[in-house]
Amino acid sequence: MGTQKKEANRKVREGKSNDGMGNVKTKGENFYRSAKRVRHLNMYKDGKPQRNAAGDITKDAVFQSRDVPSARIEPNRKWFGNTRVISQESLTAFRTAMAEKASDPYQVLLKTNKLPLSLIREVPNSTNGVKHHHAKMMIETSSFADTFGPKAQRKRVKVNVGSLMDMAEDVDKSMDKYAEKQEQARLLSGRGEGQDEDDMDAPLTMAIEHSFSKGTSRRIFNELYRVMDSSDVLLMVLDARDPLGTRCYSVEKYLRQEAPHKHLIFILNKCDLAPTSVVARWVRKLSKERPTLAMHSSLTNPFGKGSLIELLRQYAKLHSDRKQISVGLIGYPNVGKSSVVNTLKSKKVANVAPIPGETKVWQYITLTKKIYLIDCPGIVPPNQNDTPQDLVLRGTVRVENVENPEQYIDGMLKRVKQHHLERTYLMKGWNNHVEFLEMIARKSGKLLKGGEPDLDGVAKTVLNDFVRGKIPHFIPPPEEEGATDEKIEGRSGRLGEMPKKRKAEDASAAASTADPAEAAEAADDSDEFEGFGSEAEGDEDAISMGSVSDGDLDSEAEDSDDGASSKATTSKTSVPSRSGSVSEKSATAGSKRRRKA
């Protein structure tokens, strides 16, 4: 007798078979024929019914029989033990604990399959969900063609209101909800102040020109959804000069509702084009929602590269069950997604250009054995609060394709301080945007026939200077309630910044001997941000973000008071940090040049 048959017979004798039918014998089963073989042979015999001489069926076949055998349940102790039950008090406590952990951007839920998330997550707006369900069912059961028109199959349309008064009340309620959403969107976009209440009654802003539809096509959004579906971690690249304006709220909402298991990180790129203190305040503000890092993309002198790589390695360790993780880069056009990829790889692997729309399709790049990067084309999420002027000044539209570009110069002048423009173009004395363009045209020699200034060409040049950082500008973060302005001493800043530039110290030193009014004016000028454009790069007195030698951004986890270790189902993720310092070589070279001068 074979070993396998002996083992099978032993399990049958001891009642250890797992099918629950170990003590049931099949007729015809013996040493030579197993029960499976006997049932297989009986299938051929019982394949047809038995009939008498008259042709009537006397015995049904197996597949024709309607007799149901008596059910038999395997006797087991687990049927009489405790089941997986939980009291409402325990469920409420667990729901509260999970809500606290979920609100922390540095807590990651690891094992979701062992948690009753359907009981923990409360469905918001359940009444609206019921209404949406009823509306969907009504549309499916009675289409528009069956309700209206010559082929209508009923005399009266089903309306959920009983009178015109009820319909008017429903319209008022929906209008109030719409007004509330508009106000929230206006506050989120950073354009809440200075807006008139009459703007709500104005028609929706529409991009009439074809150039404003770039980044909103179905092909671009298909590329976006491919990147989001293929990525485990998503890097939303923001412009440090206008983080809220380049933030994709619709993408965040989609990830929050449809893919809460994917991790989202904010990258404040182009931090060298904004003051260090402003970037640090933006990092502190955005870190309360998501892990946030400041970065300066450069192949020769990057900033924040080490912090980002260490953070991605932490996510790779969290998903240690996978061979590799994919990291997708999403965001508005011309925010520097491809530049971030090249910075992480320390070589050019993706095409970059200072114009929007350079990346056409998604691209896979290998960073390490366990980390892959996915570059995505820039998208412009539809937002009715965004005017064509906002899109042009954010750099989402190619300026050379814009018709009548001088109409956007007035809005640009309102966002930039006048002394920055005077310092950039070395002129002063204009009263409006037309005079400003005429002065630049005559100074640079851009004239048409008859000595007329080329306003279109000059306007395009000025807009390109504004978008590419030659003209200093930034949007400061909103002031927090109870926040106090603390003076930063030495290198104690979040980005290793100095509290003031050396010019400010020189101005304060000269204030003791100069006239008080002149000293105050000089101090005010020195406190203003001078920008890091092409003309200011040669100034050794200005300490920019790029001069910090590989110093990285500290994590918001240091500011949080939650020092307790996370539970078994969560894992704490921290943003790595290294203290930044100004390189001695650059300081020495600058001092030598000043001595020669």
From TrEMBL:
Residues 1-27, 470-597 are annotated as: Disordered. It comes from the Eukaryota. It is found in: Nucleus, Nucleolus. Gene3D superfamilies: 1.10.1580.10, P-loop containing nucleotide triphosphate hydrolases (3.40.50.300). InterPro entries: G_CP_dom, GNL2_CP_dom, GTP-bd, GTP-bd_ortho_bundle_sf, NOG2_N_dom, P-loop_NTPase, TRAFAC_YlqF/YawG_RiboMat. Residues 507-520, 563-574 have a biased composition (Low complexity). Keywords: GTP-binding, Nucleotide-binding, Nucleus. Residues 1-17, 484-506 have a biased composition (Basic and acidic residues). Residues 575-589 have a biased composition (Polar residues). Residues 221-382 form the CP-type G domain. The keyword Ion transport does not apply. One of its GO terms (cellular component) is nucleolus. Residues 521-542, 551-562 have a biased composition (Acidic residues). Its main location: nucleus. One of its GO terms (molecular function) is GTP binding. GTPase that associates with pre-60S ribosomal subunits in the nucleolus and is required for their nuclear export and maturation. PANTHER family: GTP-BINDING PROTEIN-RELATED, NUCLEOLAR GTP-BINDING PROTEIN 2. Belongs to the TRAFAC class YlqF/YawG GTPase family. NOG2 subfamily. This is Nucleolar GTP-binding protein 2. It comes from Plectosphaerella cucumerina.
